[in-house]
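Following the same procedure, sequence and fold were stored together, as reproduced here.

>
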Amino acid sequence: QVQLVESGGGLVQAGGSLRLSCAASGGIVSINAMGWYRQAPGKQRDLVAMMTSTSNTNYADSVKGRFTISRDNAKNTVYLQMNNLKPEDTAVYYCHYIDYINGRTYWGQGTQVTVSS
């Protein structure tokens, strides 16, 4: 079982920046991916960015050039640097962990990001 603890959400004005963190603990495996999804009210949960343990990345088109995902494998922590935030980035951001060895996925509890215009 993997536990995910998120931090870093909040309220920011359009054009501002925030940095999200997600620390994983428990049944960490060597072949995995960590990253972020987001869900706005009344909408489905969508990919924001994911990064594998071999540093391959995948970004949603809407955040390319503005958001950067990184990870510290020694700390089992993934980060999302969000720059030039827009009101449409407002959502609950969920940390996501994929265990490729055992075929399991895990979600964090979510952290609210609100961007005011």
Notes: Residues 55 and 70 are 8 Å apart (CA to CA). The chain has a mean pLDDT of 96. The two ends are 40 Å apart (CA to CA). The chain is about 0% helix and 60% strand.
